[in-house]
């Protein structure tokens, strides 16, 4: 009977240790998730800014191309087409 209580006490102790370890891990994971969420938001913001810069550059290049006169087509151009 005493050994049963001792085994039960050991199991309760192990369960308590496991509970504490899981709680610590949970806190660490929550902090990591918060950091990753913040990092993700920063990257999304950077991505949006870069996409805007690409769009603006595309518009500038398109505007410059419109300013150039059309090149006369040569026989070589027709062969390449």
UniProtKB/TrEMBL annotation:
This is DUF904 domain-containing protein. GO terms for cellular component: cytoplasm. It comes from the Bacteria. Keywords: Coiled coil. Residues 19-67 form a coiled coil. The keyword Coiled coil applies. The keyword Coiled coil applies. It comes from Collimonas pratensis. GO terms for biological process: cell septum assembly; FtsZ-dependent cytokinesis.
